[in-house]
Design brief:
The structure holds 2 protein chains of 2 kinds. By secondary structure, chain A is of the alpha/beta class. Helix content of chain A is about 40%, strand content about 15%. The two termini of chain B are about 35 Å apart. The chains are: A alpha/beta, B alpha+beta. The structure holds pyridoxal-5'-phosphate.
Amino acid sequence: MKKRDLISKRVRDISPSGIRKFFDLLASMEDVISLGVGEPDFVTPWNIREAGIYSLEKGYTTYTSNYGLLELREELAHYLKARYGLDYDPQSELLITVGVSEGVDLAMRAILDPGDEILVHDPGYVSYMPCTILAGGIFVPVPTTIEDDFKVKAKDIERRITPRTKAILLGYPNNPTGAVMDREELVKIAEVAQRHNLLVISDEVYDRLVYGVEHTSLPSLPGMKERTILLSGFSKAYAMTGWRIGYAAAGEEIIEAMVKIHQYTMLCAPIMGQMAAIEALKTGGTQVEEMVAEYDKRRRIMVQGLNDIGLTCFEPRGAFYTFPSIKSTGLSSEDFAERLLLEDKVAVVPGSTFGQCGEGHVRCCYATSLAEIEEALERMGRFVKRHRSI
Amino acid sequence: MKEVFRILEQDARKTPQQIATMTGIPLAEVKKAIKKAEGDRTILKYKTLVNWDKLGEEQVWALIEVKVVPQRDVGFDAIAERIYRFPEARSVYLVSGTYDLAVTVVGSNMREVAAFVAQKLAPLESVQGTVTHFLLKRYKEDGEILGVEERPKRVPIMP
Ligand SMILES: Cc1ncc(COP(=O)(O)O)c(C=O)c1O
């Protein structure tokens, strides 16, 4: 069989990830400092781990309801109410997913028909485009720029609306830029969605990781709960990436559609992770705050350090990423990342991985120890000095 | 401003400049606050937590429960002072419960610690009795875990 026939057109349509080659390079190198990770460097707080262990000891090793444990959904409903004033019925409007990753996939497949367009800010998280393609939809990037601190504008979204537009996707606080949306602009986007009868998928997995600003949860805006699929999870806030627990919150009809897919493709999220997530919601509040305070210190050191070595960097207010401009080197983001790795042994992610508008930038994650951040900045300083083009 | 001291408590080698960047507090204010704290004994001293086991240094630690008779007017303070002035006493706490003072003592061997208890501590007039617990193994000290904790590696590049 020829390869062309072996693999479906849909999968072939997904372009291979540009960072594959970095895996190979990294595997052969030592003493590399990585600013390329996409997860907390904290271990899950002990009380949450302990709850997971205890659930195993007690023999919780079964499937759960397709929707997830009712107790977790109830805790979640309380949490969303207390935090954002959101009212979701734990029986029918909440679904526990295997990370936000599954949530994105389910949301796309639940709402997109072949040829339906979805508007997504560029740059954005890497899974949005492939999930759109796999769902048969058409991915329409909406450019954002450093001049606007990479916040997407309502008017730029509205300009790209066609009769086939079905939804807007927002992923803020943003990976890779660290941008956080202002409430005023979100209100305008909400108005656009209502005016054109669009759904909004809001990936708020970094909602807790904001520094000196407030995160506005999209469905909390007037009239938005009905048309929003809120996706979030435990990976980032509670340092629980490996537990694979996320959730979707939306109107009953949409959740039912998502459960329809989830029950056949995933059945349910792992019970051990769900038990740990209950503990996280019950007692994890202060620990999140402590981790956020720690990230904030590193964020300031990194932003200052990058600007000092000539990689201009706007101040990111969320997630754990900085997104400095590499213009001063004249290198493409892939070249920059590859050479920096080979010559000075620091791993960063090329901005182009996250969309065309990410070109000219690299993503540096500060979810790593201060000592490593400082050493990485020193190495990057040497690198930039050698490659300064202007 | 408390944040300045939290940072220093974690790592006394952080410079005022680094602390200023980390907190967003102006450098001059950070310097002033540290200077003032050094002056008024808010900062007692800067020291290093050493894992002496690694250096092959024999150290014997003991936790000593001391039962005392409080004295008129000065309560436990006078006897506590008698004890904390000995350099062998690393820490001295007044505690609630079945005894009164908790004293940690360090020596280079058991004999030395025993001698301190027998000759210095126990004979004190208001000391009614002592119970000595020798430490067998230290797992965690000042919030730091002493053994090598194996940390699973993260995937170095993850978008
Ligand atoms: C914006 C964004 N959404 C979703 C995810 C996936 O998170 P989860 O671990 O919940 O699947 C990530 C992980 O990096 C992310 O950055």
